[in-house]
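Need the bound structure for 3-acetylpyridine adenine dinucleotide, inputs here:
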Amino acid sequence: MSQVARIDEAAVRAPAEELDALVVGAGVSGLYQLYCLKQLGLKVKIFEAGDGVGGTWYWNRYPGARFDSESYSYAYSFSKDLLKEWNWAEHYSGQPENEQYLNFVTDKFALRPHIRFNARIKSAHFDGKTNHWHVETEDGHRARTRYLVSAVGILSAHHFPNIPGISSFKGMSLHTARWPKDKVDLRGKRVGVIGTGSTAIQLIPEIAPEVAHLTVFQRSANYACPLRNSKISDEEQESIKARYDEIFERCRRTFASFMQESDPRKTFEVSEEERYRFYEEVWAMPGFHKWFGLFHDIMTDDAANESYAEFVRGKIRERVKDPKVAELLTPRDHPFGSKRIPLETNYYETFNRDNVLLVDVKSDPIQAITPHGVKTGAQEYELDVIIYATGFDAITGELTRIDIRGEDGRSIKEVWDAEGPSTYLTFMSEGFPNFFIVNGAVFCNFTRCAEVVGNWVRDCVKYLRDHGYQRMEAEKAAQEAWVEHAASLTEGMLFTKTDSWFMGSNVPGKKRQFLFYAGGMPSFREKINEVAAKGYEGFRLS
Ligand code: N01
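Answer from helper R.:
Posting the output first, comments after.
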């Protein structure tokens, strides 16, 4: 049966639900998008795969999961009441509190009745005759909607490595991004963790004291920096609340909407003494100062980067007692910050424990998962539990797992596999009318972007309604120009020299390209506002 015939068939089957807008996913962006579209008086619903809200903060409930941007810079800013009412307990709050917060927001703004839970979308097909999307969930529920809004998040499609024998393991297998809701009792168990990215770096120090033995399988060492989390005192709480406007204004100004701003000086412009004094000063600060608060040439000048990278390597050596283990934990294969910098608490000290073993699977790769554990070329490690902290098919993975088809019957997977994730303004992909992709691909503090993009989509939908348009789509030429512009921004960036999920290269067969818009949030905001002011230039409205 041809794709077009399938779409026609979907169109004639009676939908169970008629909507103006259907938002996919009840995470940070989806909740805000629902709030915004409700404000327009639209009939709008979220379809959410899980049985609760939170997205990332619903699925990633592994021990140690927490924010590494300040709780209050990650919070929604749109409601003064909300800012007044919610008290963050910690500067970098943990998953349970983050999930509670998103539940609090959901109930405060009466969003819950507009969310359909346990509703994983199987297919979404566009019907060009009526300019509607026909959506079907895995359990057969159907809806027809004018606008389809993807808020599936950028780190949602969890990824298992391609290692033979994964399903043969007789013990317990867990992926950090699908951690069970009930407490997993690891006491007395021999546990293996595969992966040493941001997730594993949060998890490992939390579980090491509990387990009988922990084996960490590391392929690449990371430049993990101290988080320096702490409880928020009553006085700090008051001060944060008094400074919310200033905090959000500051985030608006910075490149990626975090609170930290780079130092205007260049690395080698200052004396060696001053340079190291500055490195130490930044090092003593909490959060992302150690990445975004550095000399401003750190991400563009190889020598400047290496100067700071060597400083960080020295910090790792100071904390690990066994020099051989310290050397293994010291990254030498990529520039500082070219992969996402993990923030940690007691990560390096964990490797001083008697019950923790670091296995270098770069020099001796994992060959198989066996019924009893993990087998490298040299040895088999017997385990009761294997934890996969092996990351995500980032940015495009969750969307391309859904059968989304535009008017000509081509799926978004087919289009993006062939062309890379081509969009206009990150919002729409040509050939998929009335389909908004929100918070898809701007390198940014997530909630700060979610609000900017959510507002843009709300205003756009209002404009379409007010002007009697029923259909909006990206023009081919505008999309091509945007894709070219976005690609030009990555030239010379250190990110592109390193393999990581930023480049899609952690997933075998995925096209290697920088997956974020790299122009920074201030320019992005300016561009999307300009497009809107010109009557949505580059989009065809009809
Ligand atoms: O995933 P990752 P993550 N054999 O892709 C290893 C966000 N986040 O879940 O580097 C052995 O970074 C792989 O090794 P290598 C944050 O943006 C936020 O940790 O490819 N190892 C790597 O070590 C972050 O960047 C917070 O050599 C294998 C690991 O698995 C993003 O999520 C907290 C392997 C995957 O690391 C993803 O982080 C946590 C194999 N066959 C995460 N295959 C916050 O604080 C893969 N690996 C908000």
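Comments: The longest strand covers residues 142-150. The chain is about 35% helix and 15% strand.
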